[in-house]
Amino acid sequence: MSKTISFAILHFSVAFTITYLLTGDVLVGGLVALVEPTVNTLVFYCHEKVWKRIELRASSKGFSSSAYDAPARL
After folding, report:
1. What is the pLDDT along the chain (74 residues), one digit of tens a residue?
2. Per 3-state DSSP, what percentage of the chain is helix, strand, and coil (rounded to 5)?
3. Rounded CA gap, 26 and 57, in Å?
4. Domain coordinates of the chain in residue numbers?
5. Per-residue pLDDT tens over the stretch 14-29
6. Number of CB atoms found within 10 A of residue 9's CB
7. Which segments constitute the DUF2061 domain (predicted)?
8. Which of 3, 30, 53, 64 is the most buried if burial means most Cβ atoms within 10 Å?
9. What angle, 0 to 180 degrees and rounded to 10, lies between the N-to-C axes of helices 2-23 and 26-60?
């Protein structure tokens, strides 16, 4: 969860800075910095959970989770 929180702080900062520089409006910058990174952080968290589940399922079946290093089948 620490990784997700640090990602969120970084993302909030970037979103605010870019939006403020584009619009010159602190209110719009703040709004975008709250909405977009919040949604993106939640999506990132879910994405990580799904990939862990995929990797666990693949490892329990003896398969690699990556197509590039999957074991050869004869």
Report:
1. 898 889 888 888 999 999 999 999 999 999 999 998 788 889 989 999 999 999 999 888 876 555 555 555 55
2. 75, 0, 25
3. 46
4. 2-60
5. 999 999 999 999 999 9
6. 11
7. 1-52
8. 30
9. 150
